[in-house]
Specification:
The chain is of the alpha+beta class. The chain has helices spanning 28-31, 84-98; strands spanning 9-17, 35-43, 52-56, 62-70. It has a single domain, classed as Roll (SH3 type barrels). Pfam families: OrtA.
């Protein structure tokens, strides 16, 4: 398998808390599941998926973890359109144009 080159944007994962060490107030099924984090950054040395690697994040922090993904996608969104916000936007724009706002 070819190594992923140094400097590639990647995602790593690392176990933060093993099962059984989670907070006692969380549900049993959560207590029995390890807590992992995911971090994105730039690969410091060539590596393959599944290897432990070091990355450098966008703010310069160096972190280690298991390489899980290259060029990870952002899969979240802001949900469905809320039509009422268009009306709010127009109201705010009209208010600002009227000169009734603070500092006018």
């Amino acid at each position: 398998m070819d190594k992923i080159p140094k400097g590639t944007y990647v995602e790593i994962t690392k176990e933060v808390l093993p099962r059984g060490e989670r907070a006692p107030q969380v549900p049993i099924d959560t207590q029995n599941t390890p807590l992992h984090f995911k971090v994105k950054g730039f690969l410091e040395t060539p590596a393959s998926v599944g290897e432990e690697v070091e990355i450098k994040t966008a703010i310069g922090r160096k972190m280690t973890g298991i390489l899980t993904n290259t060029n990870p996608r952002y899969t979240h969104d802001f949900g469905d359109v809320v039509p009422q916000l268009f009306q709010v936007r127009e109201s705010i724009k009209n208010f600002m144009k009227s000169g009734d706002g603070h500092g006018q």
